């Protein structure tokens, strides 16, 4: 019995650990999609977030400054995606890919220049488990909560706030209208361009934070390729969760669970590389079979004045 | 039917002319790259000078440039041909890995094929392996409407992991400390064009394929159908073109060429499969194809440009100059600039602005607000 309880405990803890960055990234993707911009640049924004968060933490000694750096650079890369899309009307797939390529090239370059090291940064100040005092005494839940850091709670708040903003405020309604039918939105006097930039910048901020979580909370350094396609998976989760922050969170937990299975199978009969393919296989299955009822806003990928 | 009717390709024949857009985009990327070099505390002129001397300044540099260009030429062709029917083959990296592995296995374990047939079969198997992965992506796209971008990326991760497992597990060279398969036999090696270099017959093969594809697109029915689908999908369907068939054929060709890129690595350079055999060649094909405006013949030129850039950067003095990673940044910038013909047009306009009157300036500002 004790064995099973222990395994369950490990699964829950690692599911949460794996899910948090996916929640942040897919909520970001949802904002982008809702404003009518394909969320294909998430991977690049996440890479930027992960890398610059480590730089911020390295030079200031504070992981909080790291988070700030990660968010700011996530937004900068999202603006590249945004400007290419909104101002220069680039094919959204190509502009998303170019953001990803650029971030994946810039991070190793700066890494090499600043730290004279290939592919791996020095260790920096990171987020530790939060001391929750008396709450730890609660059976089961207490010990699970004791494993979390402050970003876990921030993520939960962001999901609620994001949901409220998207569905319960006039601004959120306008943003969804811009994504659904930009021409109509324009006719009733909504600032279409403004909301598109807002949507894409929110996706940059969330993905920057998601990247920062990977490098400053899951680990305490930046490693080349550490995002490992999570930005693309986030885009799928967002669609799967009907581009709602709550749906994105539930979808991320589902994916996080499969990610977490790795920890159980580690050292078992199944080779680790094969176990690590699980989240990717799952994403493919969802893309192939799971998106039948899901749909993206009608205006996504279109330029409103064409 | 004259091709002018159905083919109205805004993308390939963008207003300012695609060739100038490419040239301006490349120059812009070089200039922005130069600014980055300066920001990093190096001299951009000295760096570019050294890159030029290291790549085109000597016959050794030239050979290095060509050998660096070979995989880029193949993955560039792979991306370009698929893009002609507007399929974004992001799965090239995985196709390179599976092609490298399949070719290496034929090279190591098939021991009854005489002489040149061995290497030919190994190359062919590598191509088929890559092509089948492409076909799978195409099938999921046609049958289930799955996004080929996402499926391609996921397959990359999956194939890289599976080939890594094969080379560390069941197919690992016994007693080896690193993840690699058994060496291929002498008969399976791709011959070198220049002794003691990494320049192999793969380059010749790649150029032949490029010329063939250019001819195929321009002169054959299949090429015509590819062009119609690429420029106007609705018109293609109306005209009775079997779109799914062309999709599958094109993505198979695309995957097979990327697979050849992998076979060239394992049969021509490493003489076995090693873990991490491709360092992002699949993705590097995107800037190569974009700079060539997705023309196979153009890819020959653009892959040489990037190959020379890499070769030059490799010969830079490691301690006093910018690291080679800088080349990837220039490549990514090329994609940004090429993808945005409107950006290039507005930059050209802005460069001309000082030579015009203030009145014009006012008008263009007004135009921007509308």
Walk me through what this model shows.
The complex is a heterodimer of chains A (306) and B (370). Chain A has helices spanning 2-34, 42-60, 63-87, 92-115, 141-145, 150-168, 170-180, 182-187, 192-218, 230-240, 245-265, 272-276, 278-290. With 306 residues, chain A is mostly helical. Chain A has a single domain (19-129, 147-290), classed as ABC transporter involved in vitamin B12 uptake, BtuC (Orthogonal Bundle). Chain A is globular and about 65 Å long. The mean pLDDT of chain A is 90. Chain B is an all-alpha fold and 370 residues long. Chain B has a single domain (56-319), classed as ABC transporter involved in vitamin B12 uptake, BtuC. Chain B has 16 helices and no strands. Chain B has helices at residues 3-6, 18-39, 44-56, 59-83, 92-109, 115-144, 148-168, 201-219, 221-231, 233-238, 243-270, 281-291, 296-314, 325-339, 341-352, 358-369. Chain B starts with a helix and ends with a helix. The model of chain B is unreliable at 1-5, 8-16 and 366-370 (pLDDT under 50). The interface between A and B is large, with 41 and 44 residues.
Write a brief caption for the model:
Chain A has 306 residues and is mainly α.
Rg of chain B, alpha carbons: 22 Å
Count of domains of chain A: 1
Radius of gyration of chain A: 19 Å
Report the principal-axis shape of chain B.
Answer: globular
Largest interface: pair, residues per side: A-B, 41 and 44 residues
So how many helices of chain B? 16
CATH top level assignment of chain B: Mainly Alpha
Mean pLDDT of chain A: 90
> What's the main sheet of chain A like?
none
> What is the CATH class name of chain A?
Mainly Alpha
Write out key terms for the chains shown.
heterodimer; A: 306 residues; mainly alpha; ABC transporter involved in vitamin B12 uptake, BtuC; globular; B: 370 residues; 16 helices; 0% strand; disordered N terminus; disordered C terminus
């Amino acid at each position: 019995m004790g064995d099973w309880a222990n395994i369950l405990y490990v699964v829950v803890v690692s599911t949460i650990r794996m899910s948090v960055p996916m929640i942040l990234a897919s909520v970001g993707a949802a904002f982008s999609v809702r404003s009518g911009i394909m969320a294909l640049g998430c991977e690049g924004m996440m890479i930027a977030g992960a890398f610059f968060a480590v730089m911020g933490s390295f030079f200031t000694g504070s992981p909080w400054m790291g988070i700030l750096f990660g968010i700011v650079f996530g937004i900068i890369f999202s603006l590249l995606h945004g400007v290419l899309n909104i101002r220069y009307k680039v094919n959204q797939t190509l502009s998303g890919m170019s953001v990803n390529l650029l971030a994946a090239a810039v991070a190793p370059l700066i890494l090499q220049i600043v730290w004279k090291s290939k592919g791996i940064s020095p260790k920096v100040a990171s987020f530790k488990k939060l001391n929750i005092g008396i709450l730890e005494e609660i059976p089961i839940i207490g010990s699970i909560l004791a494993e979390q850091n402050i970003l876990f709670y921030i993520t939960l708040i962001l999901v609620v706030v994001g949901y409220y903003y998207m569905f319960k405020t006039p601004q959120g309604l306008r943003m969804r209208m811009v994504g659904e039918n930009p021409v109509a939105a324009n006719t009733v006097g909504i600032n279409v361009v403004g909301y598109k930039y807002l949507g894409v910048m929110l996706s940059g901020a969330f993905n920057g934070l998601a990247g920062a979580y990977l490098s400053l909370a899951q680990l305490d350094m930046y490693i080349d390729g550490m995002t490992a396609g999570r930005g693309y998976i986030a885009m799928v989760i967002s669609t799967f969760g009907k581009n709602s922050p709550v749906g994105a969170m539930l979808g991320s937990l589902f994916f996080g669970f499969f990610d977490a299975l790795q920890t159980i199978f580690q050292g078992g009969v199944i080779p680790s590389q094969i176990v690590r393919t699980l989240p990717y296989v799952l994403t493919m299955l969802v893309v192939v079979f799971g998106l039948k009822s899901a749909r993206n806003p009608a205006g996504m990928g279109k330029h409103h004045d064409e | 039917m004259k091709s002018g009717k159905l083919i109205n390709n805004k993308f390939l024949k963008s207003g300012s002319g695609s060739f100038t857009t490419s040239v301006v985009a490349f120059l812009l990327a070089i200039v922005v790259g130069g600014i980055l070099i300066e920001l990093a505390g190096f001299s951009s002129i000295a760096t570019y000078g050294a890159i030029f001397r290291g790549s085109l300044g000597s016959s050794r540099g030239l050979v290095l440039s060509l050998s660096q260009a070979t995989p880029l030429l193949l993955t560039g062709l792979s991306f370009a041909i698929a893009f002609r029917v507007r399929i974004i083959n992001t799965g090239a990296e995985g196709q390179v890995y599976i092609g490298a592995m399949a070719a290496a296995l034929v090279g190591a374990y098939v021991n009854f094929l005489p002489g040149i047939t061995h290497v030919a079969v190994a190359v062919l198997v590598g191509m088929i392996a890559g092509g089948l992965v492409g076909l799978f992506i195409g099938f999921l796209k046609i049958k289930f409407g799955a996004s080929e971008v996402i499926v391609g990326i996921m397959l990359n991760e999956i194939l890289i992991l599976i080939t890594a497992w094969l080379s560390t597990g069941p197919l690992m060279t016994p007693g080896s400390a690193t993840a690699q398969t058994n060496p291929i036999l002498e008969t399976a090696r791709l011959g070198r064009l220049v002794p003691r270099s990494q320049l192999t017959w793969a380059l010749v093969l790649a150029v032949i394929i490029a010329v063939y594809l250019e001819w195929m697109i321009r002169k054959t029915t299949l090429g015509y159908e590819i062009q119609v689908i690429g420029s106007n999908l609705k018109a293609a369907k109306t005209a009775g073109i079997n779109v799914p068939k062309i999709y599958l054929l094109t993505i198979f060709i695309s995957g097979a060429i990327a697979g050849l890129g992998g076979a060239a690595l394992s049969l021509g350079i490493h003489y076995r499969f090693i873990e991490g055999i491709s360092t992002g060649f699949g993705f590097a094909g995107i800037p190569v194809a974009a700079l060539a405006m997705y023309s196979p013949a153009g890819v020959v030129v653009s892959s040489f440009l990037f190959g020379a850039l890499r070769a030059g950067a490799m010969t830079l003095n490691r301690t006093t100059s910018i690291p080679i990673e800088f080349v990837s940044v220039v490549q990514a910038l090329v994609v940004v600039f090429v993808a945005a013909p409107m950006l290039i047009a507005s930059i050209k306009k802005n460069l001309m602005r000082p030579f015009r009157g203030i009145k014009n300036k006012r008008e263009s500002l007004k135009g921007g607000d509308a």
